[in-house]
Amino acid sequence: MKITLRDYQEKAFLDLRKSFASHHRAPFLVAPTGAGKTIIFCAIAEAAAKRGKNIWILVHRQELLRQTDEHLWKIGVHHGCIASGRSMGVEKIQVASVQTLVRRLGKILVPPDIIIVDEGHHSAAASWVKILTRFPKAFLIGCSATPCRRDGKGLGVQSGGFYDDMVTTPSELELMAMGHLSKARVYDVDGGQMDTSKLHIKYGDFVKAEIAERMDTPRVIGDEVSTWRRVCDGVPTIAFCTTVKHAKHVRQAYQDAGVSAESLDGTMSDGMRKSRISGLGSGRFKVLTSCEIVNEGTDIPTVTCAQLLRPTKSLGLHKQQIGRVLRPHPDKKYAVILDHVSNCRRLMCYPATQIKWTLDGDQMKKERILGDEADIAMRRCPKCRLVHNPPKPACPFCGYVFIGKEDILQVPGELIEIDQAVVDAEIAARKEEATLKRRALGQCKTMPELCAKMVEQGYTNKFKNESRARIIMNARAAKKARAA
Known about the structure:
The structure is a single chain. By secondary structure, the chain is α/β, with parallel strands linked by helices. Helix content is 37%, strand content 15%. It folds into three domains: 7-170, Rossmann fold (3-Layer(aba) Sandwich); 175-426, Rossmann fold (3-Layer(aba) Sandwich), CATH 3.40.50; 444-483, no CATH class. Helix 10 links the parallel strand 12 and strand 13. The chain starts with 6 loop residues before the first helix and ends with a helix.
């Protein structure tokens, strides 16, 4: 079977070639979940193998290895696999498990000419670094929907990473307009964000034990099941949980409510994990609860709902989770995001939010690309209970004609649909607030003034304020010295 690329996939393929022709050795391909990065790098591997090159495709999970292996066989590309229980053959293309390959580096006889790294945001991790530095002459291609890390490390060479160029495909919003991704309805917590002010941060994200304590309670889990029943009863769903224990409790709650559900975690055998994932895709059960395992690479187009039950500060994790349900399918009119933990608001990132990606690290500090300004007031339809912008005289979903101000939403605690205009306006407001705070700090001349202004702005930790003030004063001194 010949590989047939869509127009934008063909462009990405050619852009990667142009990058190498421009003397880059390690371009990074950024393609949203569902854009088809697997078929792009499989096409690259096939073309390179025909020219006599040795290609490695690195993956870090059995699900990704199986998915790539099956895809290559489906399109008739001969290849081998480096994985537990399988020995490396003589094929030009090798799909390699990172965990297995790092243990076999001393036995490699033929080095790779090209290394393709699937989910390339992991490239800064120790095992990946050991492999990539072992073959410095190999050309490198990173691939990911989210080129950012929880620890804030950059992936570009200027930030200590491996990659020296970035190639992009159309964004989620553009792919939705093309019909290659499903449009999404997002249901968020009405009345504001989930309070995470008392949660501690470790490795760039909330401490799991603390978020599990908050989320893994009978009342919270019961609300999650009842909301699913109300909003999207019966659709194939992945529930993203905080811990393995939490995932099992959510599964049990669904089963107790008469909904067919199973859980998935890393302690299961490869066969069991494969069975659970295929079971959701085939309709054998409706809900799959998971901790970590299906965050990346899982391709089940029939899945319609992502139920977010794990608060996170990680933009990459959040984008990977909501991306699981954006793949189009004939039985799917639209995707549903049930955001019980305010991740969309906290991270200012909804399915249609465009991100200005960078390889420099600290992606959370980078600017989002905003849409057109719009009236941010929201109105809920009293008939179908969905939310949208009030300029519309009637509900765009059920046709209910609005009468007056009595229809403005006032229901704390329920999940409601969020319009993209609200997202854009909220991002703009936060940016303006941050700018004003920076300007106010810029007008302070001394350390005590800076510390006092930080307290005024709501930063109450004395030691952190003193540290921030010292950094600002040192930066000013350094700038003044350079100017002199």
